Amino acid sequence: DVTHFGYQTVRAEEKAGKVAEVFHSVAAKYDIMNDLMSFGIHRLWKRFTVEMSGVRPGQQVLDIAGGTGDLARAFHREVGPTGRVVLADINSSMLAVGRDKLLDSGVAGQIEFVQANAECLPFAPGSFDLITIAFGLRNVTDKDAALRSMYQSLKPGGRLLVLEFSKPVLEPLSKIYDTYSFTLLPLMGKLVANDSESYRYLAESIRMHPDQETLKGMMERAGFERCDYHNLTGGIVALHRGFKL
Ligand code: SAM
């Protein structure tokens, strides 16, 4: 079985190791790079995700590929002391940085940290009211398996939100964005994190990721119903939503 790691064709069993290298390498600089590369706009994309989640006090939330914990912290505020927030990620370095950050925010004790692969989530079926995956799905080798596993882990009536880079809807925006991604991004990666390779992977993996309609179809095939999406920043990012009814 072959798959892609950015623009490289690799054997499916090689991909997770390569993705792991990227996130071990970027973990320490992850938050600052996010702010720099997106001009802080990732905060707005995440805020919109929380708004669209419809989450209420007392609910159970899983943020898979949660990394350094931006969404987990926001959801913790929404669900309150009677709710539950689980931050799961496959990468120990990202989890460690996330845990430190949430400790500093004083909420780490109220959030569960789990090292897990999105393809085979270690939770009982029907555990969560809401599952989110932000900028994570494109790194997952078997995306269909991951979507099925998320479907299983949701309660009936629960929803999945997938926040991910997508396809810009306007041609001129697309051109500027391409230039930015393949020249400035790796350069910033080199200057700030001394790692241009990881940021080239970032640009390439975004180009290889399924577009809005394709991802919606994948969610439907995994069992999700009433699937829709919102383009953000001209489709540079899209927020997909689907329900387990
Ligand atoms: N969600 C965070 C955010 O929005 O800032 C972090 C996103 S970061 C770009 C992608 C994360 O996906 C990394 O922390 C990485 O370790 C994680 N990841 C990659 N493959 C994964 C998998 N198969 N299962 C779970 N997490 C995975």
UniProtKB/TrEMBL annotation:
GO terms, biological process: aerobic respiration; menaquinone biosynthetic process; methylation
Superkingdom of the organism of origin: Bacteria
Reactions catalysed, as given in the entry: a 2-demethylmenaquinol + S-adenosyl-L-methionine = a menaquinol + S-adenosyl-L-homocysteine + H(+); a 2-methoxy-6-(all-trans-polyprenyl)benzene-1,4-diol + S-adenosyl-L-methionine = a 5-methoxy-2-methyl-3-(all-trans-polyprenyl)benzene-1,4-diol + S-adenosyl-L-homocysteine + H(+)
Residue positions binding S-adenosyl-L-methionine: 68, 89, 117-118
Keywords: Menaquinone biosynthesis, Methyltransferase, S-adenosyl-L-methionine, Transferase, Ubiquinone biosynthesis
Any one GO molecular-function label of the UniProt entry: 2-methoxy-6-polyprenyl-1,4-benzoquinol methyltransferase activity
Enzyme Commission designation: 2.1.1.163, 2.1.1.201
Pathway: Cofactor biosynthesis; ubiquinone biosynthesis; Quinol/quinone metabolism; menaquinone biosynthesis; menaquinol from 1,4-dihydroxy-2-naphthoate: step 2/2
Enzyme class: transferase
Function in brief: Methyltransferase required for the conversion of demethylmenaquinol (DMKH2) to menaquinol (MKH2) and the conversion of 2-polyprenyl-6-methoxy-1,4-benzoquinol (DDMQH2) to 2-polyprenyl-3-methyl-6-methoxy-1,4-benzoquinol (DMQH2).
Sequence similarity: Belongs to the class I-like SAM-binding methyltransferase superfamily. MenG/UbiE family.
Listed name of the protein: Ubiquinone/menaquinone biosynthesis C-methyltransferase UbiE
Organism: Amnimonas aquatica
